């Protein structure tokens, strides 16, 4: 089989209504691509899906070549590789509806660079010859890119936004002594990022130009920082540790309320574990990967926690032995999910999980709000 993967099934875009309460059996899995066991050397744990049903992912081949694809179940297109001048592609988190994505790369000349990929080609955002970028860039529907970068190898990280030109959003000259994590940017250009106050307290904040809003400050259920994703309306899903026992957890900031959606607060032994950061859509639905009772599962959470796919499930007549569902682009505004899956025969697959239409408790996910540009 060729390095572009086998294609089957057609991706249907007409699903605009789904049940407000779904069960794991209420999903159709559309194959985007698959790869034989000896065809690739490493498969990343993340894929992202836009509102048109396009899915982005990157694979590594035994030769050392890395290649990024965009597919929809009908057509699979290679869009980026490491045949030069790029020699390594780092994590990309989102794919917007214009098929733009932002990524970090290592170059043949030893430098590192941030790029925005568009259908017209690669646009250089920033390059560095000293040190490296500590985070992965995030992109919104308008093509605005948020990222952390250093001006030299000894300077701290500063938060920037780029859409043709670079704009400094937040530095460490004032309230905050440290910026970190992986920033996530909304369509309104609100950026969620980890910070540390000069008093040494960790915070998770929303920043936009000269204004900031604290979401986590370490005084509640959660520690004051976490790997996060932000939606257009300011809802945030985050990975963090619990203050009571330092256990891993997934939380949501929604309608001005912080809530625990996955994790155990008690002192008794826990059977819940997470190791990645979640995605969230503009309706506040959270998607993430976790384990419960030693079974790894992909979940969604709206008002209740629902397992969508589990290790041990049968898909395309093969047993699922591993899966990935993570990052701020793993769920779109229709509730569609982007999974990377390993099977017990050693093969790999990329799938879009589509909620089935139903007749009860229908919820419209066609978001009609006017899109506000960054100011």
Question: What would your notes on this structure say?
Answer:
With 375 residues, this protein is an all-beta fold. The protein is 0% helix and 48% strand. It has no helices and 32 strands. The chain has strands at 17-19, 27-35, 48-49, 55-60, 66-71, 76-81, 86-89, 101-107, 112-118, 121-128, 138-139, 145-149, 158-162, 166-170, 176-185, 191-197, 202-208, 211-216, 227-230, 236-241, 248-254, 257-262, 272-274, 279-280, 286-292, 295-301, 305-310, 314-315, 318-324, 337-343, 348-355, 362-364. The chain has a five-stranded antiparallel β-sheet, with no helix packed on it. Strands 23, 24, 25, 26 and 27 form a five-stranded antiparallel β-sheet that branches. A four-stranded antiparallel β-sheet has the order 3-4-5-6, with no helix packed on it. A hairpin with a 4-residue loop joins strand 5 and strand 6 (76-81). Residues 1-24 and 359-373 have low confidence and may be disordered.
Short description:
By secondary structure, this protein is mainly β. The protein has no helices and 32 strands. It has a five-stranded antiparallel beta sheet, with no helix packed on it. Strands 23, 24, 25, 26 and 27 form a five-stranded antiparallel beta sheet that branches.
How many helices? 0
With strands numbered from the N-terminus, the spatial order across the biggest sheet is 2-31-30-29-28
Main sheet?
5 strands, antiparallel
Number of strands: 32
What descriptive keywords fit this protein?
single chain, 375 residues, mainly beta, 5-stranded antiparallel beta sheet, 32 strands, 48% strand, globular, disordered C terminus
């Amino acid at each position: 089989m060729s390095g572009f993967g086998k294609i089957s099934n057609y991706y249907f875009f007409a699903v605009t209504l789904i049940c407000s309460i779904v069960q794991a059996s209420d999903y159709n899995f559309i194959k985007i691509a698959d790869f034989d066991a000896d065809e690739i050397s490493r498969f990343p744990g993340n894929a992202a899906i836009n509102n048109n049903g396009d899915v982005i992912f990157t694979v590594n081949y035994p030769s050392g070549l890395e290649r990024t694809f965009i597919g929809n179940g009908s057509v699979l297109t290679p869009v980026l590789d490491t045949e030069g001048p790029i020699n390594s592609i780092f994590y990309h988190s989102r794919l917007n509806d214009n098929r733009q994505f932002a990524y970090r790369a290592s170059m043949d000349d030893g430098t590192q660079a941030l790029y925005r990929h568009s259908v017209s080609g690669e646009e250089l955002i920033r390059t560095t010859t000293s040190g490296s970028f500590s985070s992965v860039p995030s992109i919104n529907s308008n093509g605005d890119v948020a990222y952390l970068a250093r001006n030299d190898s000894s300077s701290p990280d500063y938060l920037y936004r780029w859409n043709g030109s670079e704009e400094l959003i937040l530095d460490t000259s004032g309230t905050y002594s440290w910026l970190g994590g992986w920033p996530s940017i909304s369509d309104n250009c609100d950026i969620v990022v980890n910070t540390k106050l000069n008093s040494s307290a960790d915070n998770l904040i929303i920043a936009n130009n000269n204004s900031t809003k604290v979401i986590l400050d370490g005084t509640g259920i959660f520690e004051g920082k976490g790997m996060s994703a932000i939606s257009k309306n300011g809802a945030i899903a985050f990975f963090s540790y619990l203050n009571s026992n330092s256990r891993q957890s997934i939380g949501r900031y929604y309608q001005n309320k912080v809530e625990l959606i996955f994790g155990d607060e008690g002192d008794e032994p826990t059977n819940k574990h997470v190791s990645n950061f979640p995605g969230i859509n503009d309706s506040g639905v959270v998607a993430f990967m976790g384990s419960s009772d030693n079974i790894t599962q992909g979940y969604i959470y709206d008002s209740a926690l629902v397992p969508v796919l589990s290790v041990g499930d049968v898909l395309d007549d093969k047993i699922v032995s591993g899966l990935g569902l993570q990052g701020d682009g793993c769920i779109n505004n229709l509730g569609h999910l982007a999974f990377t899956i390993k099977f017990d025969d050693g093969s790999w697959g990329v799938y879009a999980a589509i909620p089935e239409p139903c007749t009860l408790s229908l919820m419209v996910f066609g978001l009609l709000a006017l899109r506000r540009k960054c100011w």
